[in-house]
Amino acid sequence: ARTFGSTAVTSDRISRALAQFVRSIVSVRSKYDTGLSNNFANFTAQENQGRQIFNGPGGCAACHGTDNFVPGPALNNNGLEFPYVDLGVGGITGNAGDNGKFKVPSLRNLELTAPYMHDGRFATLEEVVEFYDHGVVDNPNLSPPLRNPPGTPNAGQPRRLNLIPDQKAALVAFLKTLTDPNL
Q: Which of 18, 60, 75, 80 has its CB 3.0 to 4.6 Å from that of 54, i.e. a possible disulfide?
C-alpha cells in the first residue's frame, strides 16, 4: 500500500516490483571491481591482455562500455542471423528497422549465465568470442559498432576481429573477471 497507494495486486505491480528488485542486485566485488582501485594489479597478464582487447581492437566496449557493461536503453542487432528467425523488437513493433534488435544484457556475472545470446545458441564464452571474431552476419539492421567504419578496408561490412587463439583465451579470461562470486 505504501508503494502503490493501495493493496490491489495486479500483473503490472508485480512486474514493477520484480523489476525494482532485480535492479537492486548490484555486483561490486568481482575481480574487475577490485582491479579498478589498483590499476588492475590483481589481474594476470592474460586477463590484462583480454581487458585491452575488450576496450581496444575488439570493440566490445562500444556496446558494453558502462560500469555495468551495458549500453543503456539501446537496442542492438548483433548479426546473429539473416534472414531473421527471431524478429526481436521488430516482432513487437512491426517496424522492419527493429528486426533482429534486442536489449543488450550486462556482462556482469557472465560466467554464471550460460547459455548465451537471447536464444541460448552458444553454450560457452569461447563460442561467443568465436562468433564475434568471425561469425557476425551482415543484415540491414546490423548495429554500427559491428561494421567496419568508413575509410577502412571493407568499409560497411561486418567487422572481423581475426584474433589468434591466445587473444581469444585472453578475452574469455577478462570476461570471467566480471563475475562476483559473493553476489
A: 60
Closest CA to 100 of 115, 114, 112, 82: 82
- Rounded to 10°, the helix 165-176/125-134 angle is 130
DSSP string, 75-92: EE-----SS-SS-BTHHH
Please state, in angstroms and rounded to a whole number, the distance separating the CA atoms of residues 83 and 106. 26
C-alpha 176 chain-centroid distance: 13
The contacts found for 33-40 with CB under 8 angstroms, 24 or more apart, are 33/180, 35/177
Give the Cα separation of 122 and 172 in Å (integer): 14
Class of residue 88 by CB neighbours under 10 A (exposed 0-12, middle 13-18, buried 19+): buried
User: Could you read off the pLDDT of 118-145 as tens digits, one per residue?
Assistant: 999 999 999 999 999 999 999 999 999 9
Which among 41, 45, 69 has a CA at the least distance from the CA of 55? Answer: 69
| Cα angle for residues 37, 50, 168 (degrees, 5° grid) | 160
Contacts for 84 with CB less than 8 Å, ≥ 6 apart: 90, 99, 100, 139
Q: How many CB atoms lie within 10 A of CB 122?
A: 18
Over residues 88-121, the pLDDT tens digits come to 999 999 999 999 999 988 899 999 999 999 999 9
H or E stretch at 11: helix 11-24
